Amino acid sequence: MFQDNLVRSINYAIHQRKLLQQLQELFDNAKNLIHRVRIEDGKFEYVNKSWQETLGYSSTEVATLTIFDILHPSCYQPWLNLMNKIQQRIPQTDAETNSIELIFISKDQKKIIVEGSITFEPSNYPKISRGIFRDITEHKAIESERRELIQELSNFKDALDKSAIFAITDAKGIITYTNDKFCEISGYSRSELLGKTHKILNSGFHSDSFFQSLWQTITKGKVWEGEICNQAKNGHLYWVHSTIAPFLNDQGEPYQYLAIRFDITEQKQAEVSLAQNNRLLQSVTQAQAQFITAHNRPDIFEGYQQY
User: Fold this and answer.
1) Are residues 199 and 121 in the same domain?
2) What is the DSSP code (8-state) at residue 201?
């Protein structure tokens, strides 16, 4: 009987040892960063291969480090708060897990952002903590770039809203979005414009072939740019410099169009006024020349030129 019990005990111990070895191999080869830290002094009891490879420390170097040697200063207090909270608790029958996000500093001073959990085993509570972390540095960088891009797009949209007239239409030219300046210059409310096409602004100034050429350009996926004379709701005409850009799907076909316009009415009026003044000046000059020729007095013309 004694021998049977002894054999069973030995077999059980061997089995447990194998399980511990398998568990150790699992930890050592895990992709996550795993460490065990003494709460009292922050010394490392264990770190796995991924931890060493990510932070760049050898086993010999790890033995000389504390958790504060690899923590970013901004994480000191959160770490201490967590440790104090755990030490003040009464030990539980089950392990307690606390999620946390930290910044580790590698041997070459790179920031490694990690998220994971800290587990306190009842048998060691609260002397030993085990941390299992996932490196999210790249994820954070992508997320930061995404936020910056969203902010840039938001800033761009705000700037565009304040300076330009723009609208979005579907593939058929039906207006699906307008900004405030579009409504302001056209005199139409947003509800009056949505669901309509830009024919609502047709002033009759341009020929049908003008708009046919425009549509042929943008439906081929190309950008169209030019000047258009529109008619507002109250009947007055206004000019815009317009750029229409197609948005293409995976097949290279337009599925919507973005039209960005700038009010050039004053510029066009100035051009018309300048042309009228030039024609007037030309008429006066011709009349003066005819007068001088008729009276055979070239000296009068010379005096006029000097003046």
Assistant:
1) no
2) G
Shared domain for 109 and 54, answered yes or no, is yes
- Percent of the chain exceeding pLDDT 90 equals 56
Q: How far apart are CA 133 and CA 101, in angstroms?
A: 9
DSSP 65: -
- Residue-wise pLDDT tens digits, 51-68: 999 999 999 999 999 999
Residue 152 covered by a domain: no
Cis peptide upstream of residue 254 (ω within 30 degrees of 0): no
| 8 Å CB contact between 192 and 172 | no
- Give the chain's domain count: 2
Q: How far apart are CA 179 and CA 167, in angstroms?
A: 7
d(CA 235, CA 223): 29
The predicted-structure confidence for 112-137, as pLDDT tens digits, reads as follows 999 998 877 666 655 888 899 999 99
Say which CATH number the domain at 238 has: 3.30.450.20
Q: What angle do CA 220, 226, 230 make, to 5 degrees?
A: 110
| Mean pLDDT of the 212-236 span | 96
In a shared domain, residues 37 and 107: yes
Domain residue limits at 233: 164-266
Q: Does the model's pTM come out above 0.70?
A: no
